[in-house]
Amino acid sequence: MNYLFTFTKKEIHDILYSTLALGFIFSIGNVGGVFGALSDPIGYLSFAILLTVIVGLSFIPHELMHKFTAMKYGAWAQYEMWKKGLMFALVLAIITNGSFVFAAPGAVMIYTHYRDQQGMMHNVRLTKRQNGFIASAGVVANLTIAGACLLLAPGNSIAITIAYINSFLAMFNMIPIPPLDGSKVIWWSIPVWVVLFAASLGLQAMI
After folding, report:
1. Which helix (H) or strand (E) holds 205?
2. pTM of the prediction?
3. What is the DSSP letter of 100?
4. Which long-range contacts (CB under 8 A, 24 or more apart) does 6-12 make?
5. Which residues are catalytic?
6. What is the pLDDT of residues 129-172, one digit of tens each?
7. By three-state DSSP, how is residue 150 classified?
8. SS3 content of the chain, % helix, strand, coil (to 5)
9. N or C: where does the chain have the smaller number of CB atoms within 10 Å of the terminal CB?
């Protein structure tokens, strides 16, 4: 049986809460910080809902590409919320009035030794190249979405916002510091890391 598109209830819960948190984090910096949100709560709420949807179109594809690529190679993969990281990101957004975004509320955890839903044990060995593909898959998704938005809808404010958030997530995740994707990609292939990081910087510069 193919488990590629299998999700647990906890995984769906974690993705939802992480998306809501990132929506708040990104939106707070675009309305003049916490005090700006408090001065116009209705306006902020409307903006936050829109931005949360946009974040969902950026963050979720990133994580799902990690998941699907890992499971294609035979591993079990599921998104897991990082509670401490999420709390840190929320507190940081509040105390900096949204001027600094820590976009790491969780990650796709990959299990190479696991029991599937039929009770069968699996022991998978991932190569360096496969790990590199898994790590870069999320960033490639973000770069593709950002590039498509800039190419297909130039000047459209929503498209520009989607492109900005996607290119930011790509750039942030390409920082070569564990546990970010960049550290895994650069360990596999420095040229690939350079291309992906340069692409994310280039897209950011175009917005």
Report:
1. helix 190-206
2. 0.87
3. S
4. 6/117, 7/78, 8/78, 10/80, 11/78, 11/79, 11/80
5. 63
6. 999 999 999 999 999 999 999 998 888 989 999 999 999 999 99
7. helix
8. 65, 10, 25
9. N
CB atoms within 10 A of CB 142: 29
75 and 142 assigned to the same domain: no
User: In angstroms, what CA-CA distances link 170 with 9, 10, 32, 44, 199?
Assistant: 27, 25, 25, 26, 9
DSSP-assigned letter for residue 122: E
Residue 36 confidence class, pLDDT cut points 50, 70, 90 = low
Torsion of CA 42, 47, 52, 57, to 10 degrees: 150
Residue ranges making up the domain that contains 85: 6-126
150 with 170, same domain: the answer is: yes
Residues 6+ apart with CB under 8 A from 158: 50, 54
Strand partners, 122: 114
Q: What DSSP string runs through 36-65?
A: HHHHSHHHHHHHHHHHHHHHHHHHHHHHHH
Number of domains in the chain: 2
Cα separation, 33 vs 136, in Å, equals: 33
Instruction: Give SS3 for 115.
Output: strand
Quick one: 112 and 149 in the same domain?
no
